Amino acid sequence: MVIMGIDPGFAILGYGIVKYEGNRFQMIDYGVITTNASLPLANRLLILEKGLVELIEKYMPDAVSVEELFFNSNSKTAIKVGQGRGVALLCAARAGIPVYEYTPLQVKQGVTGYGWADKVQVQHMVRVLLNLEKIPKPDDAADALAAAICHAHYSGIGGKAL
Fold it and tell me: Where are the domains of the chain?
């Protein structure tokens, strides 16, 4: 199974592509799609869409895993991030790929075995599980890989299909 993990955003959208077979992971690709703050929001969303479509066409994932958004202060940023997330969901749906959503606690639990793990612990386990020499950077890409790993461990039963 090929899984695309997405860490939603509108300035930086992280992605991670992993293959999961026989309880083993193979890291395929990871990185970020970035947009320039000087561009209008609609153009930034278009850049995200173009980048995601290219990735989906290249890797043909069997599932997309997205971490549920959680904001408790800046609603303006939350709305913009939500719009970037919407682009990701739309791209997956348009390609006929099932999308699964996991809470931050589920992602941490799925990667480290402990739902209250901190960011460093999650990043370390991403590195270990994918047999990488160093922790993936930037953080957005590592978070996307964590979402993909979480889906592999839950195999869709613990996530909410969208």
Answer: 2-161
Tokens of 7: 């860490």
**HEC letters along 56-94:** HHHHCCCEEEEECCCCCCCHHHHHHHHHHHHHHHHHHHH
pLDDT tens column, 95-135: 999 999 999 999 999 999 999 999 999 999 999 999 999 99
- CATH superfamily for 2-161 is Ribonuclease H-like superfamily/Ribonuclease H (3.30.420.10)
pTM for the structure as a whole: 0.93
Q: What is the dihedral of CA 37, 83, 66, 38, to 10 degrees?
A: -10
Q: Which 3 state secondary structure label does DSSP give 52?
A: helix
Query: Which residues are tagged catalytic?
Result: 7, 67, 140
